[in-house]
Design brief:
Strand order of the largest sheet: 1-3-2
Distance between the termini: 91 Å
Radius of gyration: 20 Å
Order of helices and strands: EHHEEH
Protein name: MerR family transcriptional regulator
Number of helices: 3
Number of strands: 3
InterPro entries: DNA-bd_dom_put_sf
Largest sheet: 3 strands, antiparallel
Shape: elongated
Organism: Actinacidiphila paucisporea
Length: 96
Amino acid sequence: MTGAPAVPPRTVPTQLAALALGVTEATVRKWASRGKLTRHGRPGRAEYDLEELLALAEARSAGGRTTAPAGSAPEAAAPEADPPAEADPPAHRTGR
């Protein structure tokens, strides 16, 4: 025997991957199509490796623009931007 059998990756569906990373499901799909994440599963059932997601989340929390985890495409992604702050609403005029 040459050692222990390879352990298959623990995977989660797109919705949970997005939740773990704090991004939208569309962002997870985009990152997978660009090679930043490895897509597992079968057609119609995308899943993502939990360890790979945790490494990417850790890199993103390190601040600023991030680089892809080892073994992924070298593309960097900007963190999700907060929506712009709204200006104070105009004062309501009650006079006629």
